[in-house]
Design brief:
By secondary structure, this protein is an all-alpha fold. It has one domain. The radius of gyration is 20 Å and the shape is globular. The two termini are about 20 Å apart.
Length: about 300
């Protein structure tokens, strides 16, 4: 039962991160130590699983797909999307509450870079090159998105925001879910780029099956297919893969930088120093959460 609760809480972290544009649920899975197990669990939904299902060997099927682990993490993800995500939406709506929340995640992600990078056994030139490439790709995505955010939206983009086409939403589900499980990339940010983020959030709140069903179909198909590819890469090139993902995490930091959209004139007021101090403390708390989690995990091992 303790293991179920532990995985349930990790699922809450993954689900909460996936709702916020700029924060990667895959990063949370990676830093909480369940990323590879989660990928292998998803990959196990194969022909063997179908054979066990049709033969009625449900006990063997549950063991094959690591069902208890999947249910505990999945339950946490669903609960966080339906509850904590609502709370985050309220915080993100306020100017300073948004900054404080993003500061917490900033501290959390910065600390995770060290611990994730530490798992690379051999930092040779290949790993270093993969790290640089990962950071460069993530930063390039940020720059392109920032240019798009500050520019004037075209008519095509505006129409895409209200797009409810079954096939298009299904494709968004497949692409979005793949980016959600990849550390350093934000699934919500990808959905925002594709113009369906608001639609999905509203659909979840209103249980709009016309949007949720095609999105879920695409997400399941994309998840099962992508998990096989990612698992194969992890087994063949573990150090290079982790180094690449660590670079992704580093390159994605500007996306969640709390003062990216801040008004510089506010720094002229004395109370700004107090708010800045609070923001720094919150960021340090976020980093401390990761440090304590890693220390407890090391002690347990």
């Amino acid at each position: 039962m303790n293991q179920f609760v532990n995985n349930f809480l990790k699922g809450i972290g993954i689900g909460s991160a996936n709702v916020i544009p700029g924060v990667s649920g895959g990063t949370i899975a990676l830093l909480t130590g369940i990323f590879e197990r989660l990928i292998n669990c998803l990959k196990s939904f194969n022909i063997t699983a179908l054979q066990l299902l049709f033969k009625g060997k449900f006990k063997e099927l549950a063991k094959h797909v690591d069902l208890w682990f999947l249910l505990s993490v999945g339950a946490g993800v669903i609960v966080s999307i339906l509850t904590i995500a609502k709370l985050f939406e309220i915080w993100l709506a306020g100017y300073y509450s948004r900054i404080y929340l993003m500061c917490f995640f900033l501290g959390l992600v910065i600390a995770s870079i060290y611990y994730v990078g530490k798992t690379v056994k051999n930092w040779d030139w290949k790993s270093i090159l993969a790290f640089i490439i990962g950071a460069g790709i993530a930063f390039a995505i940020f720059v392109l998105n920032y240019i798009k955010e500050t520019g004037v939206e075209s008519a095509e983009m505006q129409s895409a925001e209200m797009n409810r086409n079954f096939i298009y939403v299904m494709i968004c589900g497949a692409i979005g879910i793949c980016s959600m499980i990849l550390p350093g990339l934000s699934g919500s940010y990808v959905l925002l780029m594709m113009g369906v983020y608001d639609n999905i959030i509203v659909a979840i709140s209103n249980l709009d099956l016309g949007v949720l069903i095609p999105f879920a179909i695409g997400a399941i198909a994309g998840l099962l297919a992508f998990s096989h590819v990612l698992s194969w890469i992890f087994k063949r090139f573990p150090d290079i893969t982790i180094a690449l993902l660590t670079g992704f995490i580093l390159g994605s930091l500007p996306v969640i930088y709390p003062w990216r959209d801040a008004i510089t004139n506010e720094l002229a007021f004395p109370e700004a120093n107090i708010k800045l101090a609070i923001a720094i403390v919150i960021a340090l708390i976020g980093a401390a959460v990761i440090v304590l989690t890693e220390k407890m995990a090391a002690k347990k091992q």
